[in-house]
Amino acid sequence: MSERRQSRVDTPQEVRRQLIRRPSGLSTETFGVASERFARFMGTPRFLIWMSIFVVLWLAWNTFAPESAQFDPRSLNYTLLTLILSLQASYAAPLILLAQNRQDDRDRVALEQDRVQAERALADTEYLTREVAALRLALRETATRDFIRSELRDLLEELERRDPAPERGDEDETEEPGPAR
Fold first, then answer.
1. How far is it, in rounded angstroms, from Cα 86 to Cα 75?
2. H-type helices in 65-78, by residue range?
């Protein structure tokens, strides 16, 4: 449904009349893309070369051709050529500005995305820094292999001092006989 049909009864409708209806196949995006292409083309050496050739041919024809074949005579200061170039400039300037505005919008969106990504990367870096610091603190309190070995050696030495281990031959004698099988 259209937006007008969905509007509420207690809300006044905005009256907006279009003098010229846009063709259904032409969106503002399509027009913007076309204007960018045109603006890019006008900034190329190819365009400048072809435009120069056009102007030179125009001037040569209307200067050296017989008076009856000239359509924009020199005596009238090439009025038609001046009009054509002015018309081209009057259309080119707004199209170039439109292309620049669209590029500015794209740059603004890209900068915003870069800023968000940089903030996210900074937050991730800070989080990882805190995690690494926490791991370092935890590892200081964790017993290392060498520490455990030295503690076990000390414990073994202490046990040997308290109760000397029986010799190998004495172990068999002290063993109590068990039930016969």
1. 19
2. none
